[in-house]
Amino acid sequence: MSAASLGTVRALPSSTWRTARWLVGNTLGILAVVAPLMLVLGVGVAPATMAYFGVQAPASLWSFAVEQAPGVFTLVIAAMTISQLATHLAFGMTRRSYAAAVVLSVVAIALLLALLVPLGYVLEAAHFRAYGWAHEAPDSLALALLTSVLRTAVWGLAGALTAAIWYRFGGFAGVVALPLTAIYPIVSAGMWIERADALGAPEAAMLVGLIALLGVAYAAVVAGIAVRARTA
Predict the structure, then answer these.
(1) 158: in domain
(2) DSSP one-letter code for 93
């Protein structure tokens, strides 16, 4: 192997991490708004509104919020990353490093959003006690956090893959690929994941495998993308 090729191999991790940090950094500003908003609405406003109208809340409102909202948010953010591919390539970096960076950034965002899960349950429990309501939280908040990370990563990578298919193959293919964005609800229904702490080792392994499969598929699609030249 030549010195030039060795230099390229060594440069790939650097470009991957640099791009991943940039993608996550761009998302932090949005998260700074979305995260408090989720907590205020899900843990504060929703129970207060129900109490005002004399409606008994279910055992947990937060469980409904964290089941969908983080995944949908990450799906949208990940889908938008495809617009940065041309910039990445313009700086002399590769499609492979870009695909790896997107996968890393999706997992990092999933981890950040998962931190809201135990915090929300703790705040909700205190709020429910103030109204004299019974509250139900997962038996294991650590397991609920893990479930959130895996669930959100699946949503995010499905969004990234759908956008990449649209970008590479055109609008019709993108429409055909849209069911990918519903892959987590379909899979979780098949595995009967009804609670945030109901994730067992087989289900976790299946979700990890699904994340890996989506990541490989994303890298394969991105590898063949021809960046479109912009016309005035």
Answers:
(1) yes
(2) -
Summarised one tens digit per residue, pLDDT across range 25-80 is 888 888 899 889 989 998 999 999 998 888 888 888 888 888 778 888 888 888 88
For residue 211, give its domain range. 3-33+58-114+138-223
Give the number of domains in the chain: 1
**Distance between CA atoms of residues 151 and 68, nearest Å:** 9
Q: What angle do CA 160, 162, 166 make, to 5 degrees?
A: 115
Per-residue pLDDT of 168-208, as tens digits, reads 999 899 999 999 888 877 777 666 555 555 677 777 888 89
Residue 83 belongs to some domain of the structure? yes
Closest of 41, 89, 82, 33 to residue 65, by C-alpha: 41
In this structure, the number of other CB atoms found within 10 A of the CB of residue 111 comes to 15
Rounded to two decimals, the pTM is 0.84
